[in-house]
Specification:
The protein is mainly alpha-helical. The chain has two domains: 40 residues; 162 residues. The radius of gyration is 21 Å and the shape is flat. The chain starts with a helix and ends with a helix.
Length: 207
């Protein structure tokens, strides 16, 4: 029993092995639900499903980290002893920001691919002005909110966060100003996150 527990712990201690195991279970589930039942074809519907799944995964990573920063890290930084803060600023935050900014980019990219595959990309981006389809209007609102949020991540939050964390050298005044900018735009993205998610989910119940 101890050897089994040790083996399980050793396996789960590896993030790579854990992720691979999750992917393997997903493939098994996919084959069980589709291939062994009625089969599947590598058609537009298949690739649309793959794009939707990828979109959901990276979006969860992005919004999850956005909420982590706003609900956990930022509110509790003042409570952390000064001698422990470098661990957050030098190790935890840069790692989280790596996944944060790339998840944002991949969320937008996969969302645009999904809309293109399903034939409503142009209609959604123009908020369905010409067709008047409520579903596409709702998706378009969500898409534009997401694009604005991703822009904030890459062109406002990340450059200022590098100065705030000391990744880029700057004077104390600039560092303080950058920290305030990060908080403001992070809060703005948090404001946008709920209506963005609402628009995307509500679109599924519209026609």
């Amino acid at each position: 029993m101890k050897n089994l527990q040790a083996s399980i712990f050793s396996f789960l201690s590896s993030l790579s092995k854990t992720v691979h195991a999750s992917l393997a279970l997903t493939i098994i589930l996919f084959l069980s639900l589709f291939y062994l039942n009625n089969g599947f074809s590598f058609d537009r519907l298949f690739w649309s499903g793959i794009a939707r799944y990828a979109h959901a995964i990276v979006a969860i990573m992005w919004i999850g980290l956005l909420w982590y920063f706003n609900f956990v890290q930022i509110p509790n930084m003042s409570k952390i002893p000064d001698d422990q803060k470098p661990a957050i600023g030098k190790i935890i935050a840069p790692a989280a920001l790596f996944y944060f900014r790339w998840a944002a980019a991949l969320t937008i990219f996969s969302g645009l691919i999904l809309a293109l595959l399903n034939g409503y990309l142009e209609d959604a981006l123009t908020l369905s002005i010409s067709s008047g389809i409520p579903k596409h209007t709702a998706i378009g609102i969500g898409m534009w909110l997401g694009i604005i949020m991703a822009f904030n991540v890459w062109f406002v939050i990340w450059p200022n966060q590098k100065r705030a964390l000391g990744i880029v050298d700057c004077d104390f005044e600039t560092k303080t100003k950058s920290t305030k900018t990060v908080i403001i735009f992070s809060r703005l993205n948090t404001i946008f996150s709920l209506p963005m998610l609402f628009s995307m989910i509500a679109a599924q119940n519209l026609y």
